[in-house]
User: Which sequence fits this backbone?
């Protein structure tokens, strides 16, 4: 039994379905094949949220270069992204922390309240990892990724 999805796989004896309904196996096989074809055709959808345009450009370039059939949606802040997130869950959400209007941490709070179940990468610089882990403990599928200190143009020698 899969408790998360509330279903169980129960083996059936060979020929049971065919005895009840002739041709049912062909119909079900076709339905399964159609469903799998739909799943394969669906592009992976990644939402990137960062108020730094160069960060969005680099991340989008890397994703599109290494992965085929990926839809990348970029937003300059959570306030812009929320209507999109309310319409459709992404396959992955990557968010910055310090942004205008709403911080990444506030976005995490919103996602916990919404009971979002898609993976989130919290790319934060000024937040302690234990704070982000609190959201994981509250049911959010979040991974903490610390941004390097000093910004994108600093060089540490």
Assistant:
């Amino acid at each position: 039994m899969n408790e998360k999805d509330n279903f169980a796989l129960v083996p059936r004896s060979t020929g049971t379905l065919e005895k009840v309904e002739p041709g049912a196996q062909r119909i079900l096989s076709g339905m399964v094949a159609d469903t799998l074809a739909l799943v394969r055709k669906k592009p992976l959808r990644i939402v990137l949220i960062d108020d730094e345009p160069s960060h969005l450009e680099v991340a989008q370039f890397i994703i599109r270069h290494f992965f085929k059939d990926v839809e990348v949606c970029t937003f300059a802040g959570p306030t812009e992204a929320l209507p999109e997130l309310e319409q459709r869950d992404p396959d992955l959400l990557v968010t910055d922390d310090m942004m205008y209007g709403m911080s990444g941490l506030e976005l995490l709070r919103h996602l916990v309240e919404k009971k979002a179940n898609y993976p989130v990468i919290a790319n934060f610089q000024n937040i302690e990892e234990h704070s982000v882990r609190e959201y994981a403990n509250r049911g959010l599928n979040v991974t903490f990724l610390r941004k390097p200190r000093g910004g994108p143009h600093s060089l540490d020698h």
